[in-house]
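Exercise: predict the structure of this protein bound to acetyl coenzyme *A.
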Amino acid sequence: MAHGRITGWATHLPERILTNHDLAELVDTSDEWIRERSGIGARHVDGKVTEMSVEAGRDAMAMAGVDPSDVDLLLLATCTSDQQFPASASVVQNELGMSCGAIDLNAACSGFVYGLVTAMQFAEGGVETILVIGSDALSGITDWTDRGTCVLFGDGAGAVVIQRSASTPTLLGWDLMSDGSAASILTCEHGGKIFMNGKEVFRRAVLALEAAATNALERAGVTMDDITLVVPHQANIRIVDAALKRLGIPMDKAAMVLERTGNTSAASIPLAFVDALDKGRVEPGDLVLMVGFGAGMSSAAAVVRWDPPGA
Ligand code: ACO
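Solution:
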């Protein structure tokens, strides 16, 4: 029986960069405060989910050597669709020249891992080629007068092609969770801006990351020591640091791009993962732990055995 594996990957960031110094001209803040409290130095803004997704999706398919007409399913993880409907996935599917089912999937910042786990189930079920994209444009729903939130967010997209071509499973364990009782601490109404109770999100995020990672590792039948690379949601360096400490994982195992991207929601994990791949931090056979949390409060983790084509 064949199993799904990642055969192509790519990311895209919009051109305009907003540094902490730029933000200090908008609100009462400083580069020092933002770096110390969040680990963020700059973020890309003015992105559109469909445009960023098309760029990342096209490059991921090119890398996999997959023709758009061969894609059987598009899963687009986003919480900032360009319009209420149609789904951004439908727009992207058309612009990329694909002829297949296409849906948006909203699990906020956990969206990419939700999409990856879902795609792997489709692959197990017999679907040959799936494009998974995590793409968000939080700059469009950021209140640029609120210093408590505007310093954190940015835009971006990351995409992977999943093909049913591995001889043994590559998704070894996963955990998907949602705690809707905490939904009110991080919300955005239709037409509104992000509202966040930062302290409460912080507290819950650390616990959610720990629980999701622990559950996925347990289901994979592996321990922290077996993991080569951890790809955490890039929300705040202090959240990542606290969660990894609780898990007993050294910080140097983490893939981090937060300093130059800010929190890009569903794009953050693929952005950090692809950056780590580009730096040669993952070898065939290595185990990667992806773990995220977000509005909902959603959380998700996946243990992936790295099995690139040609390995
Ligand atoms: N610049 C300067 N001062 C600031 C800023 C700023 N940008 N923002 C807040 N402050 C001030 C506050 O007003 C407060 O001042 P006061 O003591 O006079 O009242 C002081 O700094 C401390 O504020 P805190 O809120 O206690 O700061 P904290 O250390 O908790 O950091 C932060 C705030 C960065 C928002 C943190 O709570 C956090 O990261 N929370 C989680 C955010 C998160 O992960 N969100 C995304 C989740 S998922 C998703 O992306 C959808």
